[in-house]
Amino acid sequence: MAELTYREAVARAIAQEMERDPSVVLLGEDVAGAGGAFKATGGLLERFGPERVRDTPISEQAILGAAMGAAMTGLRPIAEVMFSDFFAVCWDMVANQIAKSRYMTAGQVQLPLVVRSGNGGGSRFGAQHSQSVENWAMAVPGLKVVAPSCPSDVIGLLAAAVRDPDPVLVFEHKSLYPTKGEVPDGELVGHLGQAALRRQGGDLTLVALAAMVPVALEAAERLAAEGVQATVIDLRSLVPLDVSTVLSSVSATGHLVTVEENPRLCGWGAELASIVAEECFYDLDGPIVRVTTPHVPLPAADSLEDLARPSVARVLEAVPRALG
Amino acid sequence: MAELTYREAVARAIAQEMERDPSVVLLGEDVAGAGGAFKATGGLLERFGPERVRDTPISEQAILGAAMGAAMTGLRPIAEVMFSDFFAVCWDMVANQIAKSRYMTAGQVQLPLVVRSGNGGGSRFGAQHSQSVENWAMAVPGLKVVAPSCPSDVIGLLAAAVRDPDPVLVFEHKSLYPTKGEVPDGELVGHLGQAALRRQGGDLTLVALAAMVPVALEAAERLAAEGVQATVIDLRSLVPLDVSTVLSSVSATGHLVTVEENPRLCGWGAELASIVAEECFYDLDGPIVRVTTPHVPLPAADSLEDLARPSVARVLEAVPRALG
Amino acid sequence: MATSPLTTGTEPAARSGPETGLALYRWMVVIRQFEKRAYDLFLQNLVKGTSHLSLGQEAVAAGFGVAMRPDDWTFATYRGHAHTIVRGVPLTPIMAELLGRDNGLLRGKGGSMHLTSVAHGMMGSYAIVGAHLPVAVGAAWSAAYRKSGQVAVCFFGDGATNIGAFHEALNLAVVWNLPVVFVCENNLYMEYTPIGAVTAVPRPAADRAPAYGLPPVAIDGNDPEVVHQTALAALERARSGGGPSLIEAVTYRHGGHSRADPATYRPKEEVADWLARDPVPAYRARLVGAGVPEDELQRVEAEAKEAVDRATEEAKAGPPPDPGLVTADLWADGGSSWRS
Amino acid sequence: MATSPLTTGTEPAARSGPETGLALYRWMVVIRQFEKRAYDLFLQNLVKGTSHLSLGQEAVAAGFGVAMRPDDWTFATYRGHAHTIVRGVPLTPIMAELLGRDNGLLRGKGGSMHLTSVAHGMMGSYAIVGAHLPVAVGAAWSAAYRKSGQVAVCFFGDGATNIGAFHEALNLAVVWNLPVVFVCENNLYMEYTPIGAVTAVPRPAADRAPAYGLPPVAIDGNDPEVVHQTALAALERARSGGGPSLIEAVTYRHGGHSRADPATYRPKEEVADWLARDPVPAYRARLVGAGVPEDELQRVEAEAKEAVDRATEEAKAGPPPDPGLVTADLWADGGSSWRS
Ligand SMILES: Cc1ncc(C[n+]2csc(CCOP(=O)(O)OP(=O)(O)O)c2C)c(N)n1
Ligand SMILES: Cc1ncc(C[n+]2csc(CCOP(=O)(O)OP(=O)(O)O)c2C)c(N)n1
Ligand SMILES: [Mg+2]
Ligand SMILES: [Mg+2]
């Protein structure tokens, strides 16, 4: 056991996989010489050399295209898109090429690749550097999508992503990079598609992802003080989605609140709510309530950004509506 | 009254608006000389001249960037993205620039622009030319989103979009271009954000969009033959979303089935289902069921594509589950 | 404009020998026959989706096909039948794919625009303009990393030179000095708009080469020997660590952009001019002049026709795709489940 | 590499007069003082988000600012304080925006990376590399369409020359012959990587100009008079229907890429070299040499300092933004409702 930061966990996961498999390579803007804009890839150039750890021009389409072409010809690339907002400049590569090639070719094209990206708000970077866009990826068939909330999950999910035969997008949350957590020693490999039960309670199910997990947990503590016992599920993986963990919890509690950072419309919370409203309808004892950022871009000023993103207070406000 | 095709309606709407307002201009690949890849802009070059109707290179980022720059400095451009799949190559312009500029600048930047695009499947074009991506747009705050299902709505919504002070994405359905409908004479201007009640029935609410509207209507006829009376709502506009029309219908019928063409996860159906599950929960008498394309890209072969897209049969299959 | 005089950036190392000549001719004829048949089948409503033919552009595919090593990689656009054929992919599955049958190359899932046969080094046909240039760069990176000596060859149209991905791919390929050959088939038109009307330079690819530190190369894309020699030189350069090449092959499509496009937007004289320079009869005449016996050419032609006939019959006999394919092969496990 | 000898593509029409010289110096000093203050405030934890300073690059903004007509348009990157200042936007709202206050230029909604003042022709600061080049093209199109004589001037970094939007914007601007001036501030680095390490040509912008039919222009971006004269010529060319220009102004940032980046990735000697060519003292010395009285320069400096002091105080006194702003101004109706 050792305490690591979330950013250190990224570098450790990549090193673990590069050590194990010489076909694993890393590319992106400033990932090599500078160790990454978020300092999450520090030391990798020194350890694995410039053939495996490569700085690129500011050319996201070329970065992802290169990852794709390398993956289909035998490498297992890890590409970095510095801020997840920049997926917009290479969305064709992600949504039309990487996601669809295996299906269109009836399974001929293999794409074992990983795209890591700094996602989410809280850093006062404004609308073009703060988005939570995991729902963009979730909406596109052919992409696996994970978003770890703690250092040990960073390692477990990133390692699982590298070993997975399909393309996986790993959303690292920017505001979590400096956070710390205990990490077991030795090799760590997780599973894609397993939610984690972070807290057990019989009155209500709270589902959250990435930076919203601590928010949900704190809300659950406050609720406990008022006598309401909440289960908190850390979804961890959006595709594959651990539907059964959510359904069995909601079956037990009868109430669901989702806590998501993306803007209001068409987020993973909407998907989850719809699944529950279809598959678990008769077990529901109250409305399903989603706590989200309102349907606006994130403002830059600290006070405004804090108001926009879901907070413990907003979760607490939502719970009575869900309990009905 | 005259009978027009859906594609003729596009040209008529644009002509109506260009006639009225000299600041309206049209740009896109092959829209001028060739009258559009779908022949939906025929005759406009001849009528309004090469300064107002402009062919572009294959440069979608430049097309949308040019539309944005022109809109913020006094023009009202209508840009064409030939197939909506190509939004992926200019998604930054749409999602990060056009959608966010007014908000980020506290209202300083005005963006009265329209982006039209051929959307949806049914043409056996395969995975990269058949997508329904209206949910991509719906998920991004700052974009208005409409999708007409008939020629008169094409004119009404397109005209309303041109006159709207905000950016509007108009999803024209490729498989509807050859379809015909009655269109009133004279100027036609619709409203963004009004759903249309296409059929009234007390037992069930079916909600559909664009090419799924005829599917839902036919399903409703078949249901009527079995004694189940369905209301069919043509959503028409995703942003603004006519929530009240949907809620009041579901309050009356107690049952909701959505019929959407996009892949399974995070579509407008999920959003609508979630809204109903939150705001109308106590009026629901059964699970909310979504009929969608499965979470796969669209296959090219006719038989496979027909199996993948929602059909009357799939809607009929879903109804008993919704009725509980 | 794109009709400006051609320059040959790479001098042919040697004239092609008679065997090469016949090989070039054979592929040109096979492509010609195949594409004409595909058009007929489209008119018979048997090709259901869209298709983009290479009629008139056969010399480019043939010249490269003959020059490439079996383990080299092809990346093509939606106009990819010809490039698939020259890699030795059997004609039946190609034709069956156009017809949307279960015996299609992609079992009907991809259609005409996405022909792929990884086993033959045909790494895909891409329907988003420009998208495959960065992908080819990635394949070349993998070849360089593994020191495999493979080269990625990437074909695209004149119109693709104006999209961002072109720029990013060229720059990265040069910076990383990768074994990739970019081949612009300049057929003077994007869909319906002349490339000269929307491009800042006369030669859309060649005039951009210096922006990536590469020499400008524009060749006669209707001359299979020029194409073949240029291909050999570029492949050798790539294989020996000399880095990328960008080649503009000027050519012309005889028909419309896709399917039933009558291509009325092109001046009659221009079409007539280019038809007079039809690469197939022109090369035939050249071979005859070089002493290749007439009956040998006729044999090649008959074999091509027979192969296309057989492929047509076999394709037509194919069943519609298994319905289970709709939800198959999204993931490596063969399925498409999004829930665990 | 980017440090190669500079060439001046446009010959200065005439030496700048003393008034112009003082104007250039004034803006350079204001920018210098403002940026140093922004850095101090960042260290005091008052600037909460990120910020990208133009310390060392003042001559580019000043040279263009003095040359532009009031109704011309500026499009800048996240490194846009300087370009906002030279359009005459008052310093207080700029500073208040950095501090995230209600009296900020964008009421705190945009922050340092998105400074915009439409009333001053400052049409935005864009934080996605390359995105604003096509937008500037659109503004130029609108000027041409309305025959307004306005010019769009678009500033970007060396790193932006490798992204697709650069290519698309340049091509379209030339094809449509639009009044737009593209200015590459080549400060030799993207974030932390030297531009020469990731670019296929030595001069990232100038060496690409011919790919769009434009002459290669690289100038000394630390000499405000060279910048000013080049700007005048390009603006005049654009205004008179001569079409776009692409100018590479070679310069250097004194500090890190953003915020507290210590910029240790740069060789000490390189930094020392460029500090020795600091444009502010260098230009001061030149003006003194040209006979501008010392007290006039001191007055300019004192005024600048006073203006920045006042802006700082007023900004600090600003309240936090009205909470209602979170859901304001998504739409033209002032709100952000997505339901009707
Ligand atoms: C990004 C993108 N934009 C537009 C299209 C639509 N489209 C398909 S082919 C084509 C013309 C391409 O012209 P060119 O590159 O010259 O190739 P050619 O078809 O002539 O071989 C266009 C505009 C597309 N497929 N992808
Ligand atoms: C599309 C995109 N990719 C990456 C980034 C992250 N990023 C911000 S600034 C920067 C470096 C830009 O370098 P340059 O263009 O030279 O401008 P400079 O900062 O030196 O002024 C990078 C990579 C971004 N903002 N947008
Ligand atoms: Mg072409
Ligand atoms: Mg720079």
Short description:
Chain A is built from 12 helices and 14 strands. Chain A is α/β, with parallel strands linked by helices and 324 residues long.
Taking the sheet with the most strands of chain A, its summary is: 7 strands, mixed
How many discrete domains of chain A?
2
CATH superfamily of chain C: Thiamin diphosphate (ThDP)-binding fold, Pyr/PP domains
What is the N-to-C order of secondary-structure elements of chain C (H for helix, E for strand)? Answer: HHEHHEHEHEEHEHHH
Number of helices of chain C: 10
Could you characterize what this model shows?
The complex is a heterotetramer, with two copies of chain A (324 residues) and two copies of chain C (340 residues). Chain A contains twelve helices and 14 strands. Chain A starts with a strand and ends with a helix. A seven-stranded mixed sheet of chain A has the order 3-2-4-5-7-6-12, with helices on both faces. Chain A has helices spanning 6-20, 44-48, 60-71, 91-98, 101-104, 134-138, 151-163, 212-225, 243-253, 268-279, 302-308, 312-323, and strands at residues 2-5, 24-28, 53-55, 76-83, 114-119, 144-146, 168-173, 180-183, 196-199, 204-208, 230-234, 237-239, 256-263, 289-293. Chain C has one domain (18-90, 127-160, 168-312): Thiamin diphosphate (ThDP)-binding fold, Pyr/PP domains (Rossmann fold). Chain C is built from ten helices and six strands; from the N terminus they run H-H-E-H-H-E-H-E-H-E-E-H-E-H-H-H. Chain C has a six-stranded parallel sheet, with helices on both faces. In chain C, helix 5 runs parallel beside helix 6 (164-175). Chain C is globular. The C-D interface holds C 162-168, 170-171, 174-175, 197-201, 207-208, 210-214 and D 162-168, 170-171, 174-175, 197-201, 207-208, 210-214. Bound molecules: thiamine diphosphate (2 copies) and magnesium ion (2 copies). One thiamine diphosphate (TPP) sits between chains D (79, 127-129, 156-160, 163, 185, 187, 189-191, 257) and A (29, 58, 60, 82, 86, 89).
